[in-house]
Write a structure and sequence with these properties.
21% strand; binds zinc ion; single chain; two-stranded antiparallel ribbon; 2 helices; alpha+beta; 5 strands; globular
Protein backbone atom coordinates (compact mmCIF):
# COMPACT_ATOMS: atom_id res chain seq x y z
CA UNK A 1 0.00 0.00 0.00
CA UNK A 2 1.27 3.46 -0.92
CA UNK A 3 0.14 6.71 0.65
CA UNK A 4 1.33 10.25 0.01
CA UNK A 5 1.77 12.95 2.64
CA UNK A 6 2.67 16.41 1.31
CA UNK A 7 5.03 18.57 3.35
CA UNK A 8 3.87 22.02 4.42
CA UNK A 9 5.63 23.94 1.64
CA UNK A 10 4.21 21.66 -1.05
CA UNK A 11 7.62 21.12 -2.66
CA UNK A 12 8.06 17.57 -1.40
CA UNK A 13 6.04 14.69 -0.10
CA UNK A 14 6.59 11.68 2.07
CA UNK A 15 5.64 8.59 0.12
CA UNK A 16 4.91 5.62 2.36
CA UNK A 17 5.37 2.29 0.60
CA UNK A 18 4.69 -0.47 3.10
CA UNK A 19 7.00 0.32 6.00
CA UNK A 20 9.41 2.43 3.95
CA UNK A 21 9.11 6.22 3.73
CA UNK A 22 10.61 8.15 0.82
CA UNK A 23 11.02 11.92 0.77
CA UNK A 24 10.52 12.88 -2.86
CA UNK A 25 9.68 16.00 -4.84
CA UNK A 26 6.00 16.67 -5.38
CA UNK A 27 4.82 16.14 -8.95
CA UNK A 28 2.16 18.75 -9.64
CA UNK A 29 -0.33 18.74 -12.52
CA UNK A 30 0.58 22.32 -13.45
CA UNK A 31 4.27 21.52 -13.90
CA UNK A 32 5.60 21.56 -17.47
CA UNK A 33 5.16 18.10 -19.05
CA UNK A 34 8.93 17.58 -19.39
CA UNK A 35 9.50 18.29 -15.70
CA UNK A 36 6.65 15.95 -14.71
CA UNK A 37 8.10 13.22 -16.93
CA UNK A 38 11.60 13.61 -15.47
CA UNK A 39 10.31 13.62 -11.90
CA UNK A 40 8.30 10.46 -12.59
CA UNK A 41 11.44 8.78 -13.98
CA UNK A 42 13.38 9.80 -10.86
CA UNK A 43 10.61 8.50 -8.64
CA UNK A 44 10.57 5.23 -10.56
CA UNK A 45 14.35 4.94 -10.11
CA UNK A 46 13.97 5.60 -6.38
CA UNK A 47 11.25 3.01 -5.91
CA UNK A 48 12.87 0.35 -8.12
CA UNK A 49 16.42 1.08 -7.00
CA UNK A 50 17.65 1.42 -10.58
CA UNK A 51 17.46 4.19 -13.18
CA UNK A 52 15.81 3.05 -16.41
CA UNK A 53 17.90 5.56 -18.38
CA UNK A 54 21.50 5.30 -17.14
CA UNK A 55 21.19 2.06 -15.11
CA UNK A 56 22.54 3.73 -11.95
CA UNK A 57 21.62 1.68 -8.91
CA UNK A 58 20.62 2.80 -5.46
CA UNK A 59 23.11 2.59 -2.63
CA UNK A 60 22.67 3.24 1.05
CA UNK A 61 24.07 6.53 2.28
CA UNK A 62 25.10 7.42 5.79
CA UNK A 63 22.49 6.30 8.33
CA UNK A 64 20.78 9.33 9.83
CA UNK A 65 19.35 7.41 12.78
CA UNK A 66 18.49 3.81 13.61
CA UNK A 67 16.15 2.63 10.83
CA UNK A 68 16.52 5.98 9.01
CA UNK A 69 18.90 6.23 6.12
CA UNK A 70 19.53 7.87 2.79
CA UNK A 71 19.05 6.21 -0.58
CA UNK A 72 21.57 7.53 -3.07
CA UNK A 73 21.38 7.15 -6.84
CA UNK A 74 24.38 8.60 -8.65
CA UNK A 75 23.05 9.13 -12.17
CA UNK A 76 25.50 9.42 -15.03
CA UNK A 77 26.21 13.01 -16.05
CA UNK A 78 24.39 12.54 -19.36
CA UNK A 79 21.30 11.02 -17.71
CA UNK A 80 18.20 13.14 -18.34
CA UNK A 81 17.17 12.74 -14.71
CA UNK A 82 20.54 13.61 -13.15
CA UNK A 83 20.42 16.30 -10.47
CA UNK A 84 22.13 18.79 -12.78
CA UNK A 85 19.38 18.37 -15.37
CA UNK A 86 16.34 18.34 -13.09
CA UNK A 87 17.29 20.77 -10.30
CA UNK A 88 17.33 23.88 -12.54
CA UNK A 89 13.91 22.97 -13.98
CA UNK A 90 12.49 22.48 -10.50
CA UNK A 91 14.01 25.74 -9.25
CA UNK A 92 12.56 27.63 -12.23
CA UNK A 93 9.11 26.12 -11.69
CA UNK A 94 9.00 26.99 -7.97
CA UNK A 95 10.44 30.48 -8.51
CA UNK A 96 7.53 31.31 -10.82
CA UNK A 97 4.84 30.16 -8.42
CA UNK A 98 3.34 32.50 -5.85
CA UNK A 99 4.09 31.69 -2.23
CA UNK A 100 1.86 28.96 -0.91
CA UNK A 101 -1.02 30.15 1.21
CA UNK A 102 -3.16 28.25 3.66
CA UNK A 103 -5.58 25.99 1.87
CA UNK A 104 -3.55 25.74 -1.33
CA UNK A 105 -3.78 22.23 -2.70
CA UNK A 106 -0.22 20.85 -2.87
CA UNK A 107 -1.31 18.45 -5.58
ZN1 LIG B 1 19.89 7.93 -14.42
Amino acid sequence: MTTSHPLADGHAQILLVGEVAYLVPTIRPDMPPRLRRLLRLRLEATLKGRCSRCSATATAGTPLAPRLGELLIEHEGWCPVADGAVAPLLARYWSRRPRRTTGDDPG
